[in-house]
Amino acid sequence: MKASSSTLHKSSPTAAVHFKTAPRTSPSASEEEVASQGKPPLSKPASNKLHTLAVFTAVAVTPFLFVVVLSIVLEIRSYFTSQPTQQFCCPNELLTVLRGVNSSIDPCDDFYQYVCSRIDAGEVQHVSPPFRVIQQLNLLEVANPGESGSAAGEMLATIKRGVWDAEQSGGEDIGDYVTAISKALRLAPEMDLLRMVRFMAELSLRYGLSTVVSFEVSEAGDILIIKINDGCISQNRNTDMLHFALESFNNVVNATVDLQGLQVVEETVIALRRSKAPKILYQPINNSPFEDLKDGDWNAIINDLVLPVHPNANTVETHQNDKVNALLDNFAYSPHQPATIAYVAVCSALSTRDLIEEAALKPGAQSLSACQVMDICEIEQAYMAHLLSGHHMNEYVAALFTKMRDNVFQHANASLGKVYQEEVSRKLQGLRLVLPEEIVASDIPVPTVAGTFADTFIAARSYVFEVRKAKVARNIPNVDDLFLPAMVRNGDVAYVPTNLYAIVQQHVQRMVVLDVPVLGVDMAYQLWSFLLEQSWPSEISRSIETYKSCFKGSRSADYLKTAYTALGVVSAVDAMMAVDWNVVGSVNGTETTVGRLVYLMQLYATPTVEVFSDDTPGVTPIFVGRDAEGNRSRPSSGNRVRWILGIGTPQRTFTKNVEEWDMPVSIFVFTAILLGLLIVLAVLILWRALSGDKDTSKTSTWEGGEEDIEGFGLAIRPFRGRRASMNETVTDAVELLIAR
């Protein structure tokens, strides 16, 4: 035994090869004895392993198949239940915005240049404020004003029809204007100086019509300007139109003025009008500028027609070279009447008709709308308030304002500190919201439409004057401030114009999220500006000024507006960050997310505001953020832009209802593929685990190379509790050989 053992160890490679190629012999008695003790044959364990592997594979593949089938079902359901990519409203305007961006610039590096570089270079033109086209088309598309059941709507419909028909009249309607003016101002064949001055002042100030002597208030509202205008007869060569006008005047006033009489009056006007550069004279508004008109009579005119609408007017401006006194004395001189009265009425009628034609030529102008040209936007506002600002809409806007107030309150607490929590809440509660019904002075009755278009237009101008008086008395901003779709704040009162309601009304069908740039940002802007304008302790005031100073070096001319807008955007977007923020919509085939569109439109809405730039500070905390060295800390502009635009956020190409399965189908497909790979890996690992003993016993690396030690499976079976190491396997094999 020792010799054989020694021989084996000395020439193990030869012995191994010899064992490999040795012929099989019948089992010895000892082997038969081992087999007779109940040991299974070699094929039985392999069968059990295959069975185990099959069961494991079936169990593992089942969830994979389930995920695949579920993905297919959801894809089919998505196809039938989801809506196709919806069209955003105002496609032409929005498409201009989308095409205006400079795609060669990374928006995360410099978002301002991405949006505005082509505009600054003059390659594209700035579009009008966002969604303004809705306001312009609202009266034609949302409803028929004439069938709205609203007096303002009926009046507006009549005026709009008259504007469109102005070119078709051929001048025959000039008589209607003369008749309407004569009746409204109660003209008579003879009028003294007081009535003549009031007549011209009322034409200018109540009805907004140009006449021989005009009374105009300066843009600042503090100066009443009185001047003589150019003659109107010599500029109009349509004698037929003049005959129509005189015929109407004579019928109303019961006079017999002819065209020659008008020409004589015009010669007087031209002679008394200044012939060289005027010398401007100023005097207190309470002093009568007319020599023969008493101060008391003059003050009655001022108190009726000037101060109720322009309470800051305190000065009268006249031109020394304009012989206004001589002209009015001539007009009030009895022998010259009623030709002078007819001249004033005809000139006013001609200028009114010219105004209507101007409105007809540019009803959709970007700079001025038809209602602005005709100066009757209060009628439009009243109609829109009746049409849009119902109980439901009022509740919606009020609720949104409350939400914005809460958001600003939370951000302010993070910035100003909880020590001032109660004071912040109290100050924010001090800002009052005024809705359209109160803004348009809905308690002022709208005149009933009757008679000709000219009658309606004159009545509309008178109504506008009464509304403006009421707004001044109630401290409501004028229509010019409220015309654009933006909120206006006067002190502690924030006003929501009806134009905003017109826009919001378009979004009630699944597009409420677009109310962010329309209403939400404006509300948050006004809340922040109101809050930060209040008095604060010196420490907080310094922090606020530090925050504002971060915007002084920006591209914006009004850095405070930029600062407040930045706060407004963050506060408003926080409130509306919902699933719909990443919904994809289409603008004439150009797809974009709601979030990206909102940000672009907000930037275009305020062309003088740079909402986010490299100099924009962080927002939470806004004022007191400092880094380790005491400098102001702020996140990068790119990160803010990524957050605002939702870059990197999964986007849906279909808009689903909230109750539907909200996870994109692509997630299921990706999960199925990943699960499939894991299953394959698990099967390979299990196969390796189950066949590891056989594989280990089948091949082993000896010094002489790979050797087949098949038949040693029985020798390894005692190590069933764990996998045998290579050394253990070789040792068992050697011991078995020695035993043999």
TrEMBL record:
Entry keywords, A to Z: Membrane, Transmembrane, Transmembrane helix
Protein name per its UniProtKB record: Peptidase M13 N-terminal domain-containing protein
UniProt biased composition (Polar residues): 1-14
Stretches that traverse the bilayer: 53-74, 665-687
Region Disordered: start-end pairs: 1-43
Superkingdom: Eukaryota
Annotated source species: Rhipicephalus sanguineus
